[in-house]
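Worked example 2:
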Amino acid sequence: HAAAFAHLVYVSAWIKCWHPDVFCAALLNSQPMGFYAPAQIVRDARQHGVRVLHPDVNLSDWDTRLEALPPLRPDGRGTTRSVVEGASTPTLGPVRLGLRQIDGFRRDWAEAIMAARPFASLDDLRTRARLPAQALDALAAADALSSLKLSRRGGLWAAKGLPRAKPAPLFAAAGLDEDDGAPPTVLPRMAASEEVVRDYETLRLSLKAHPMSFLRERFAAEGVRPCAEVETLRNGARVAIAGVVLVRQRPGSAKGVCFITLEDETGVANIVVWPKVFETFRPVIMGGRMLGVRGRIQRAEGVSHLVPTRRARRS
């Protein structure tokens, strides 16, 4: 068992080192895994030079995939992958998020899209892919209609305005047409913070910005430090941090200890919650999508984590 696990770790590390784009796509296609959250996988890939692209109805398959690399230069260099130690950094293929990343989206809907595209308009998509209103709403909410020249807000308006197979009972009873038609020429743009929140609601990640970046000024005024600073502070230092919950685990073998990974726009921080603190703040720890934690830094064998002493904030 130990030998098999060591081999798995070596192969995974080799792929992650030389092909971080492939590694990212493979992990996303293996979700749910129970440990690595999609946002964490994408953040790490982008930190290692991988370009990650938003889902799009005309460009995404069901699975996350690598888009084609640009052609070779005349000298035959520049875009081929090299795994020879000391060679130049290999060119990485852009990773296109799959339609599977959209919360609640079904595989048969994605397969219908893949078989019928390209699409010129939302109505073209509806009629030729024979998608139900639920699927169109999900695509619009996930901002996956950019190739149809529809923003998230414009897409939501347009999707809701298409004819429905089953009209709302109140409209039907009144003899009214529920079809609103095309969206207005000009719609107010969504605020960047709202776009990011909608991304997390529909994709569990955002390529636009991190939610904490919009709260940094407010948190800084309260003495809350960036997650990346956990690695730089001395052992035993008191600190407050806040971030989005990426991982929350309480394995049976840990004797009641809960392990949490928080992420902000600077990086991640590991939280170790002892049983007594966990029981005191169980609803917050288990229910919060964003947590604020005050505690002490503990560092051992090069690994740093924060042990909370009391709650700072819950969102």
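The longest strand covers residues 238-249. DSSP finds twelve helices and eight strands in the chain.
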